[in-house]
């Protein structure tokens, strides 16, 4: 087993008192870790801390054994992320946006841009400005951007929001195919039934605390992550799981 992501004692408290505290978990190579929790639980904050978009108050993050704080460049090298659409410019086309991003990965040929646009079904619209895109199209572009560097770890914050049926299938297939090839995923979503289709593990984050981590293959027959989540939110312990 190869640990790709190791999160130890990560905490971040904003001035308003909100945030996350003492988060610990790790993800092994090829696993798909679904992060779920109510609005404001701290999922985005955690993902930002893991990718260095936000500096945590406590703890450390290791990616492929490299400490994010001490060795940012090489730790982040193998990561593809889509957290909000921070790196997408609406006055540029999809192709131009990816051209901006690929500059940071000189080992990737320019033809990689067309490859990833094709894999998310955006080829037809690649020369349209992002300002004319629907929310689902922007989501597809965010996924394409995350795939661009052929990362070993992909971190996606609410990637299924706004996707149509075809977009959902594309997204699901990308996750399944890449995880089969050994790519590791951390994905947050409120669409638990979607996560149920491909996640190997789930972490439930409530009020900034990681309440439990469950392995999908240890669920009792017929129980979905939504059942488990509802029970956890309701404070009911699920024997043998959490
Ligand atoms: N920059 C900030 N300054 C102050 N408070 C913040 C900041 N960023 C996030 N928060 C607060 O921290 C808490 C966690 O926010 P976060 O966005 O991480 O939650 P989330 O689980 O991703 O929520 P959602 O599911 O609604 O996207 C929220 O109460 C939010 O208001």
CATH class of the largest domain, named Alpha Beta
- The CATH H-level superfamily of the largest domain is P-loop containing nucleotide triphosphate hydrolases
Q: Sheet bearing the most strands, described?
A: 6 strands, mixed
CATH structural fold name of the largest domain: Rossmann fold
Strand order of the largest sheet: 6-7-8-3-9-10
The number of helical segments is 8
Topology, number of strands: 10
Beta-strand portion reads: 25-35%
Using the 3D structure, state the CATH architecture of the largest domain. Answer: 3-Layer(aba) Sandwich
CA radius of gyration is 18 Å
Instruction: Domain count, please report it.
Output: 2
- What is the N-to-C succession of helices and strands? EEEHEEHEHHHEHEHEEH
Low-confidence stretches: 236-240
Helix content: 25-40%
Categorize the overall geometry. globular
Mean pLDDT: 92
Q: Kindly, what is the distance between the CA atoms of the first and last residues, rounded to a whole number of angstroms?
A: 22 Å
List the ions, cofactors and other small molecules found in this model.
adenosine-5'-triphosphate
Q: Which structural class matches the secondary elements?
A: alpha/beta
GO molecular function: ATP binding; ATP hydrolysis activity
Domain ABC transporter: 5-232
InterPro entries: AAA+_ATPase, ABC_transporter-like_ATP-bd, P-loop_NTPase
Family: Belongs to the ABC transporter superfamily.
